[in-house]
Amino acid sequence: MILAFGLFLVTLILIIWQPRGLSIGTTAVAGAIAALLLGVVSWQDVWEVTLIVWDATLAFIGIILLSMVLDEIGFFEWAAVKMAHLSRGSGHLMFLNILLLGALVAAFFANDGAALILTPILLAKMRYLKMDAKAIFAFLMAGGFIGDSASNPLVISNLTNIVTANYFGIGFIEYMKNMFFPNLLSVLASIAVLWLFFRKSIPRHIDVELLPEAAGVIRNQKMFRISWWLLGLLLLGYFVGDLYHLPISLFALGGALIFLTIAAKHKATKPWMTVKTAPWQVVWFSIGLYVVVFGLKNAGLTDEIAQWLLWLKAQGHAVYVIGTGFLSGGLSAVMNNMPTIMIMDIAIDKTGDTFLAYANILGANLGPKITPIGSLATLLWLHVLAKKGVTIGWWDYMRVGLIVTPPVLFVALLGLL
Asked: Cβ(194)–Cβ(149) under 8 Å?
């Protein structure tokens, strides 16, 4: 246990720290190789991990590729400007609209897509509107939070969702039916709690006339119109794929490549540049880190967590569900939600109570918002902001996360009872 945990801790620290620009994928793969050499895992474990994460990882790459093409068309900038104009100059209404936009982007393009694509657009528009530092901080933190708290409704909304759905054999439709209401509660609670926390930082009036018209930011009108049809067909494909038990990556990645081909034909994007800049490191990150995490499973950690879950079960159904969600959330906050989701999935499988998978997802998607290291999306979000000259310190982040996250997670978990 000590060797496996020590190796995991070193790998996680290097992933978060990224010394000398060391990429997260390289670090994770190095950790996996070390786990093999030290006998913490076997080649059979590596193969088992690959079978668990390949579909989720390829689907995630597809979703990000799709988001990048839409961004080059001007799709997300159009949406951001449109929502700003709909606020009619009210700062509080704009705050609400930005949260609703973030929730929609997270639902259909994953929380990481929201972090990578929407964040720089919002920051640029807020600077253009000459908002002060307190208002910018409020809008950025709220946008970052909703990206994770609203990433529950569809299997494609978060990498953790795809991993868990594949692990337990949960179909696209079944998943959506079970998570629609908890996600709705999560979004409503997020909006309420975030507004209460930041209400004094939100300006009463914003001169939205400074912004261009929404139609003016679209870079390719023909591709913009086509994209609505393609997105509708892609969503339909997810439902059809569920009926025939096809891998979700077949539609997510396949649809993204078709989309990219059509966009290239209409000169809306440079396909090689888009593919080249896609986050391929996530592929190695997913497989490598999960191999390291499998070492914790081999060392008995998942058996121990399964016993904790069974103790919660003895306290009653409500405690069982809510306790599982908060356990997942707490572990995600301190050790990142990617390793947490697999550890908890394996532990839940040992209890035989697979309905807890949904509580695990809510915990792993919301709990990370307590700390800056809790999720890959938050790390990407902070990285994007740093490149734009905005640095958010640990304390500034955690004073929001510690207050906002627990009540939102609690309300979302009530939707499972």
From this structure: no
Residue 198 to residue 212: CA distance in whole angstroms: 27
Q: Could you tell me if 283 and 50 are in contact, meaning their C-beta atoms sit under 8 angstroms apart?
A: no
At 385 the pLDDT is: 84
Structure-derived torsion over alpha carbons of residues 329, 333, 334, 336, reported in degrees to the nearest 10 = 100
In this structure, what DSSP letter does residue 31 have? Answer: H
| 168 domain-assigned | yes
Q: Determine the structural domain holding residue 168 and report its residue range.
A: 42-271+300-414
* Structural domain count of the chain: 1
Residue 35 lies in a domain: no
The C-alpha R_g of the chain, in whole angstroms, comes to 21
CB 310 within 8 A of CB 351: yes
Query: Average pLDDT for residues 289-297, to the nearest whole number?
Result: 86
Residue 278 is encoded by which pair of tokens?
A: 């896609």
Residue 14 maps to a domain: no
Which of 2-6, 31-35, 150-154, 330-334 comes out lowest in average pLDDT?
Answer: 2-6
First-last CA distance in the chain: 35
Burial label for 359, CB within 10 Å (0-12, 13-18, 19+), is buried
293-296 CB contacts, 8 Å cutoff, 24+ apart: 293/8, 293/339, 293/342, 293/343, 294/35, 294/41, 294/45, 294/48, 294/49, 294/342, 295/4, 295/7, 295/8, 295/35, 295/40, 295/41, 295/45, 296/1, 296/4, 296/5, 296/8, 296/339, 296/343
**Contact in structure between 73 and 322 (CB atoms under 8 Å):** no
Using the Cα atoms of residue 363, residue 159, residue 347 and residue 301 in order, give the sign of their dihedral: negative
pLDDT in tens, 16-61: 777 877 777 788 888 889 999 998 888 998 898 888 888 888 888 8
Sign of the CA dihedral running 25, 31, 32, 33:
positive
For 232-289, what is the HEC assignment? HHHHHHHHHHHHCCCCHHHHHHHHHHHHHHHHHHCCCCCHHHHHHHCCCHHHHHHHHH
Of the two residues 17 and 229, the one the predictor is more confident about is 229
Determine phi and psi for 205, rounding to 5 degrees: -130, 140
For residue 90, list its beta bridge partners. 205
Contact 83, 97 (CB under 8 A): yes
358 assigned to some structural domain:
yes
